[in-house]
Amino acid sequence: MTTRILSFKVAGQLCGIPVQDVHDVIRGGQRMTAVPRAAPAIIGILNLRGRIALAVSLRRYLELADTGRPSNSLTTMSLVIENAGNLYCLAVDSVGEVLSLEGKAGPVPPVLDAGWRKAVSGVWPCDGALLAQLDVRGMIDALCAGPDEQMPAGK
Amino acid sequence: MDELLQEFLTDTTEKLNALDLDLVRLEKNPNDAELIGRIFRLVHTVKGNCGFLGLPRLENVTHHAEGVLSQYRAGTVQVTTDSVSLILQSLDRIKGIVGGIAQTGVEPAGDDRVLIGLLDAEAASRRQLPEVANAFSAAMDDLSAKSLRIGVDTLEDMMTLMGELVLARNQLLPHMRGELHQPLQRLDKTVSALQQSMLKARMQPVGNLWGKLPRLVRDMAIDLGKKIRLDMQGGTTEIDRQVLELIRDPLTHLLRNAADHGIEKPAARVTKGKPPEGAITLSARHEGGQVVIDVSDDGRGLDEAAILQKAVESGLVPAARGRSMTAAQVQQLVFAPGFSTAAEVTAVSGRGVGMDVVRANIEKIGGTVDLSSAAGRGATVTMRIPLTLAIIPALVVKTDGERYAIPRNAVREVVALKRGGVHKILRIDRAKFLSLRGQMVPLVSLQAVFGADELAAKALNPYVVILHVGGGGVFGIICDGIANAEEIVVKPLSPALLRLRLFSGNAVLGDGGVVLILDPSGIARAANIEPAQKPAAPDIAAIAERRNPALLFRAGAGADRAVPLEYLSRIERIDMTTVENAGGRQLIAYRDGLLPLIAYPGCAAGGRRQPVLVIRDGDAQAGVIFDSVLGVVDALPDVALKQETGSGSLGSALAAGHAVDVMDAPWLIRRAREGLRHDHPDIVV
Q: Looking at residue B431, which CATH number applies to its domain?
C-alpha cells in the first residue's frame, strides 16, 4: 500500500501529513489578526479568499523554541487544512515534496519530548532520515477542546 | 422520495401546525361555526390527499377525526375540553405518522384502534357525513399562485454570496473617484438594494413561531391544574428566519417558566383578588433595528427571598453579600448558571437549566434579555433580538494596534477623552470609572482584559465606548481610537476560539483585514466588573413637575418636611436597640432583608422607639428616621427655592399654607446605603 505524504520541515525535523488532508499550501505574507488570550499555538486569524482561517504555529504547538517574533503577518509557508467546515493554517518552516511511501508507518518511539509525543501519529523511514507523520485532526481537536476557563487577565 | 409525497408532507405539516392554533381557539369559542368549518376543511383536505397517495393508516385516522368534526359542525355534539383533547390526540397521531413517512418514505406501523374507538364513541350520534364537495373546492382555492416555495439551502447560499458581494463592494468603495465614480456609485446602490431584498426574502413573521404555543400553554395548563390564557400581539412582526429558529427554544422555555412558576392555581389567584384565569402575554414589535419580544404574566412575580435563599444555599452568593443585595440584583441571580428555584422538579420546568441558557442563547445572537418583576403582580421578560445575523452594522475600534468590531446594537455612545475635556477617568485603586451624567460607569481597559502590558502603550486621546449588557447595565471600554463604522459580514468563530468567551464572531472588513467581534457581556465577565445600572440620580424638575401627593412630617427643628408619596412604601416604628452598625452603615433586619437607616438631616432621633419612613427608589430602599407625621397634601407644588444636592433636601415648596422642605429621597437612599461619612457631621443617628 502506498501512502502519499506531503513533507515539510519544522525546526529542522522532517515531518509530513497525508496529502489528501491538505487543502492548499500558501506562502507567507498574508496579513494576520492576533487573537488575545488564545492558546499560545494560535498565532492569529487571516482572510483566505473571503473565508477566515485560524493560523497555528507548529513550532509553538510542538513546544519548540520560536525563532519568529510576534508579527501581524504570516511569516512562513503554511499548509491549509479543512476540518468540519473550518479552515486552519499550519505555519511550518518550509514545504518539501510529496513522497510516496510504501507499507505502514512505524510506531511512535516513547523517547520523544511531550510536545512531539502529542502530535506524532507514526514514523516513516525516508532516505536515511525519519519522517514524523503528524496527527492533524488530533491537534485540531486538542486546540478546540482545551480547558474551559479563561486565562486570568493581565495584571 | 417522490416529489408529490414530499410536497404533501410539507403541506400537511404546515396545515397541522395551523390546526393546533385553531383548535385551542375552538375550545374557548365552541360556537364559532366559521372556525369549525375551517378546521373541518383542513382535516378533510389531509384525508383527501391520503387516499390519493396511498396512505391507508393516515387516511383511517383522519377519516374518524373528520367524523367527530363534522358532528361539531352540524352542532349535534357539544365541544368540550375532553373532545378538543381527543382531537389534539388524533392530530398528534397524524403528526407521528407524517413524521415517520418523512423519515422512511413509508407509513410507520402502529395500532390506532383505541384512538379510533374513542373518536367513534365521541361521534356516537353519528349520521350520514354531510356533503363535502363544496368544502373541498374551497380548500383548493387557498392554493395561491402568488408565492413560490424555495429551499432554505438555496436561500442560505444566496445569502453567503450576498455577503461576498458586500465585501467586494466595501473593498471597492475607497476607489470611488475619477471615471469609476459613477459606475461604482451605481454598484453600491444596487448592492444595498439587493441586500435589502435578500434580507426581506429571509424574513418571516414571528407569528410562524407562535403557532405552536397556544397548544403548549393549553397542555401545560391542564397538566398543572391551572387556567391560563395566552394573548399574542404583533405576530406579524418580521424577523430573519435564522434568528427565528434560534429564539424558538428560549421562547418556549420562557413560556414554560411563566406557566409553571408565574401563574398561580385558580384558588390562590382568587384569594389574591385576581381573576381565576391567569394571562400570559406575548408581544413583538420592531424598535430601532431590533425586534423586541416581551413575555409577561400576571402571576406571583419573582420570589426574591426564595431566590436569594437558594443562591446562598448553593454557594452562588456569599451570605454576607446576599444581605446587602437590592431586589433588582437578586432578580438577576436567576440568570446565574444552573440556577433554578423550583422546589420540586415538575414535568414542565425546574430542571436546573433555565434562564442562564435562555440568556446565553439570546446573547449568542447579539441580543439581550431583561427581567422585571413586581411581587404579586407578575413578571416580564424582554428579549431584544437583532433583525438579522448575517450582515450587521458595527463600530470598528482600535486598541494596541489591532482593530475590533463592536455590534452597533451594543453601543450606547462613544465618549472622546480629550486632554482638559469634561470627561475624565476616575480611579479607585485599579478600578476605573467615568462619571457620565451623574452615573458612575465602570470602565474596562481592553488591553488589560487581553493581557497586554497596559503601561507599554498609552494613547494620548483615548475613547470610551459605552456598551449595553444584559439586565440594563452599562459599562465602558477604553480603546485607542475609532477606526470607522461599517457593515460587516459576520462569520462564525473558529471552534478553537469559542471558549475564550470574549468574541462573538469574526468578520472580513472592507480592506480585506480580519477583525474579531467583541462580545460585551463576555468582556464584562472577563474584566470582573459589575455594569452600572440605570441611574437613580434625582431629576429635580421632573419630580417637582409631577405635583404628586406628599406626606408632611416633622424631623428635628426647622420647617416641616415633605416626602412625595411615590417614594414612600411604609411607615414603621423601630426599636433603636436592634440597630446594628456594619461598615459605617446603620442596618436593621426588615422583612426578608436588611434595611439601611439614616436620620433625616437635623433630626436628633433620641427616642428608643423611633418612627421610620421606608422609602424606595426603583429597587433600592432605605429607612429615614423622623419625629412625627403631620398629614398628607394632594399636590406638592414645584420646588420654589432649590437647594444644591447633597443636603438631603431638594429645596423648599409651599404646602398647606407654609414652606416645607422637600426630601431628596434618592440621595438619602444612596447615602444610607453607602454608609455615613465623616464629612457630614450633621447626620447623626
A: 2.40.50.180
